[in-house]
Design brief:
It contains three helices and no strands. By secondary structure, it is an all-alpha fold. The protein has one domain. The protein is elongated.
Amino acid sequence: MLQNALSLTICAFVYSYQESYTYRDPITEFLECLYVNFDFDGAQQKLRECETVKMGVLGQLADTRHKSQLADESLQSDHGCKFS
């Protein structure tokens, strides 16, 4: 069990180190705080940021789905087309 945890920590460190120069987002920063820096307060803050990003993405998906449904309804009523 300890060996698995150590392997995970090493993989997270290598991943975070390689990616930190090219790509940053709350998820990679969360992993870096948790597994590389062992900064649990920072990890908790990054987790909150991940939640904010998730809610934004879900909101955009819901909006896109709603617009798609409106377009389908419009086509059905205007042209008699039906989409499943």
